[in-house]
Task: structure prediction
Amino acid sequence: MSTNAVATRRANDSESEVGLWVFLASEVMFFGLLFYGYTITRMAHPQAFAIASAHTDVLLGSINALVIFTSSLTVALAARSLRLGAQRASFWLLAVTLALGVLFLAIKCYEYYSDIDKHLVPWGNFALHGPLGGGERMFFFMYFVMTGAHAIHLTVGLGLLAFMLAGVARGTYTQKNSEAVDLTALYWAVVDTVWIFLYPVLYLVHRS
Amino acid sequence: MTSSALRLIGVWLAVIVLLGVSLGTSYIPMGRFNSIVCVTIAFVQALLVWTFFMRLRWSGLLVRLIAAAGLIWFLLLLGLSLTDYLTRHTVGS
Amino acid sequence: MSPAIAEPAVPEPDSNYLENGYSLWSWLTTTDHKRIAILYAVTITAFFFMGGAAATLMRLELISPTPLIMGAETYNKLFTAHGVIMVWFFLIPSIPATLGNFLIPMMVGAKDVALPRVNLLSWYIFVLGGAFVIVTLISGGIDTGWTFYTPLSTRYSDTRVVYGVVGVFVAGFSSILTGLNFIVTVHRLRAPGLTWFKLPLFVWAIYATSIILVLATPVLAMTLVLLAVQRIFGLGIFDATLGGDPVLFQHMFWFYSHPAVYIMVLPAMGVASEVITCFARKPVFGYRTMAYAIAAIAAFGFMVWGHHMFVAGQSLYASLVFSFLSYVVAIPSAIKVFNWTATLYKGSITFEAPMLYALGFVGLFLIGGLTGLYLASLALDANLSDTYFVVAHFHYIMVGGSVMAYFAGIHFWWPKITGRMYPESWSRLAAIVIFIGFNLTFFPQFILGLEGMPRRYFEYAPQFQFLNILSSAGASILAAGYILPALYLTWSIRHGAHAGGNPWGAKGLEWQTRSPPPVENFDIPPTIPQRPYDYDPQAEEAERT
Result:
């Protein structure tokens, strides 16, 4: 087989792969429900959501988008390397992915810290008191729930990546036994996808 | 570097460029089109990630159907609910 | 990942899965789908009696229109406990996690499910969810109803709502993993030559149920998360004082909970097809139509949830759409009832206990389904919503339908699972007692509803008393009916006559192996039939072993 074919590997749709995709479909529904709640509430409170969104830290959000999109590349490359037998390259690419994931969480933590500092937490001493009622509070309710759920999924992903890293280092996962890394990369790509949609919906509602 | 690696990097570049476009256009006042542009870009980015990073381009029919099912069911949730939320204040309801 | 592998080492020749380790540890660490099915069966039976106890206490109270043995708070907690336990900890896992787990690998000719360890994990998650519910009960129970409507659940209830919600949330993951496992198993582990249209309808039914489990349950999970966060922190998107919408919770909740009723009914329909074909000695009428009907029910079942919200403040136009779609979803269900009837026609019918339960299922499901049509009509529902008519409707489907079918399946496959026959006379008696008790309990409730008695009320107007007394009397008969199988089935495990591989002369791959089956299901690979339900009503004598 040419390296290109191996690298792309026509999926033989193994049981584990089918199982993981079924799980990913359920993940779409998990986050879908949250996006649905956000959408309906925003439709009822468009201006309040716009005002509230303007208070999110678009710089940090954009940097995080960059970080996570890049990590998605590196994990895809890591899986590809392993399929091609480049064990060391795979190891380092997984390590970079893990590092980027940790960086994402660190930035997120800092962002939460500054949100709390700016009194953007909707329960308690909330800073935004628009004439439009509680819409700003509801925006930040969804902001914390959605980014929180995303962060939890990302943390699980970090655990998986660490496990894969150890496995590749020890030689458990190799060119002949690369499926676990492939599936981890798929999971990570879904975590990435959620951010693809979270980012505009939370940070870019009303920047102009 | 083989073409497969270059392809992945190319997709990444496209996603980053789209990120920039999304961010940039959000500073241009376009009224409700801002949201439409952002969400459309997000869908394109997701499509790129799912097709190339998640390798749906080379997957069997079953996996593609499963991936599609998730999306379709989400649209069903949103779409049918809108029959309520778009008509709440219509005369007669 | 390697394909399904059952218990380790080489079992003794002629040994079966029950003999593969007698210790508790061997049961608690098993990855054998048959043992996991039994673990589930024991667990859900315990929950069934807990939920039944709650119902018994409620029916005792309802003998009197004024307070008799409890106060209003307690009554609210009882109907909540009854609903939560019966829906999530009995009905939803019942047929899929017990009969489905035991039979699906065998029906597709496999050694086990696709992901055996995930299967065991799903049971542990289920038990963990159940533990949370028990903690909730011990700490006083919750009073919101199993539907957790806001703002009672998010703000005004002073019961342990979060504990209960966590229990359901956790149990949901068990559902998702079970469904995931079946989907992969049916797609990837079918024996060579076993195409989709040779599969028993039970497999189709469980497969369709699995799709619902995987796509609907996550929605419930996150809905409960939003509820819990709002309750804990005091505000959220369902909060009307902020401009939020309590009805949004209902949209989210019912998007799952309506398909959930199809999770409860589709497997029952699958069982009915297996049992009716066997005891009428006839292939099912219209096999492909039956399979497509299963798929249609699963698909359309996702599009009707708004019919629970006709009087909740949903827009009229949405209600019209949901009403129309509710009529549409009745069509494939009706087709199935016609086809079971046509299967019986000119069959060679015998009335063993499984058949009694299956026939009961068809008739009672029919009544439940027809009364659903009443409720799908906007004009009627405006008056019947939140009355006992609704209570009677869903109990006809879920108890008259699903529970009867579960009993049909338990009795039908009991010889296969345990290697023993149960006493036939007692089983027929129990079936009849259950049928009579059920109808006496729930038919008066249709009339009560039409006369205007509201549901979830612990006091009621005195003119409703007579029918309530009838209903409670029926409940006591029903309870006696349910205790009978608990007794004779348990007795049969040790003392029942030994069953052969195929005591009913049934078709289906599971009947080609021993009873109880070997650990890896088949000593020799099963023969794939030319078509499913290959019965010949003319030649039934020769089939009986």
Remarks:
- The CA atoms of residues 18 and 41 of chain B lie 7 Å apart.
- The longest helix of chain B spans residues 61-85.
- Chain B has a mean pLDDT of 92.
